[in-house]
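TICKET: design request
STATUS: open
ATTACHED STRUCTURE:
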């Protein structure tokens, strides 16, 4: 699947491929407008993370050349999609051309004549991509990370947020993905009424499996699985279900730390003041962490700060924090 971010000048430049039909072998999703690439990578790309190719029309982006190349490099460290950049008339002696190669992009469309551009686009989107340029080899996303042994069965971990939009679902899904990547069997359970799971299943084209879905080895359900797994992770969203928490082996509280969020986070802590739990705090600047840890941490609640996780199904960025949460369940640890 191809995501094409186009300017109004180049809206139809990929139409010659015939791939815009959703029934085609390689369908194209076209978005026409003006963008800042760095902002798109941070805030929007996670909705398109299942696309295998991303075509960027340079004219569609307001970033400076240096910002544009840097945003692509950051994109390539977070996603596996192949990037093609359309830079009509770009010379190989231009600093942007060198910056694109240094960022890891070798698929660069530079011609100015429409048929020649179409030939270059065809080459870029071929199985092996454009071979005339040699981009800098980039490090792939962390794969094959250390494996652990888990002898536990159906350990119930319940995620609850202090309020809506603090990242509870993102943290729960990332946690499940990380567990699977290190050798655990895991089931994510949508224990809330948000309806996000059905949307995620469509967006990621999850494989239908029994009463739920399967994606990259993780089960996604609305009810606990019938078969035994190492971990069942319930996502309660921002609704504290005391009965469900009482049954949980380990509660995980996702707490907002912005000034207008702290009140809700403290109230959630108070409701579970004698319950051993982890507090996961997303979006906290390094300089503020010590003060917040001192304010929120106590004998029952351990505070962990989550790094920015733009892709929900890639929990590797918070591997250290997630390992801390389940350290007692690693066999032989």
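STATUS: resolved
RESOLUTION: sequence designed for all positions
ATTACHED SEQUENCE:
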């Amino acid at each position: 699947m191809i995501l094409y971010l186009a300017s109004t000048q180049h809206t139809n430049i990929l139409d010659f491929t015939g791939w815009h039909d959703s029934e085609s072998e390689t369908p194209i999703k076209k978005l026409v407008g003006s963008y800042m690439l760095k902002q798109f990578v941070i805030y929007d790309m996670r909705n398109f993370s299942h696309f295998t190719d991303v075509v960027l029309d340079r004219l569609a982006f307001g970033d400076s050349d240096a910002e544009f190349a840097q945003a692509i490099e950051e994109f390539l460290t977070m996603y596996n999609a192949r990037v093609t950049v359309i830079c009509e008339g770009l010379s190989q002696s231009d600093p942007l051309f060198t910056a694109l190669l240094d960022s890891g992009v070798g698929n660069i469309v530079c011609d100015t004549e429409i048929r020649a551009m179409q030939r270059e686009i065809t080459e870029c989107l071929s199985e092996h991509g454009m071979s005339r340029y040699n981009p800098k080899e980039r490090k792939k996303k962390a794969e094959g990370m250390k494996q652990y042994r888990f002898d536990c069965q159906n350990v119930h971990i319940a995620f609850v947020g202090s309020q809506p939009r603090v990242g509870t679902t993102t943290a729960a899904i990332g946690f499940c993905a990380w567990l699977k990547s290190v050798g655990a069997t895991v089931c994510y359970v949508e224990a809330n009424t948000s309806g996000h799971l059905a949307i995620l299943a469509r967006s990621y084209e999850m494989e239908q499996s029994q009463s739920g879905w399967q994606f990259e080895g993780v089960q996604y359900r609305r009810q606990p699985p019938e078969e035994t797994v190492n971990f069942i992770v319930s996502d309660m969203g921002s609704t504290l279900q005391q009965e469900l928490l009482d049954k949980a082996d380990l509660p995980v509280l996702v707490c907002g730390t912005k000034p207008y969020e702290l009140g809700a986070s403290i109230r959630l802590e108070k409701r579970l003041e004698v319950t051993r739990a982890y507090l996961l705090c997303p979006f906290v600047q390094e300089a503020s962490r010590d003060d917040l840890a001192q304010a929120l941490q106590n004998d029952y609640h351990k505070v962990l700060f989550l790094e920015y996780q733009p892709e929900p199904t890639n929990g590797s960025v918070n591997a250290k924090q997630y390992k801390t949460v389940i350290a007692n369940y690693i066999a032989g640890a």
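CLOSING REMARK: The chain has two domains: 2-124, 155-329. The CA atoms of residues 190 and 196 lie 8 Å apart.
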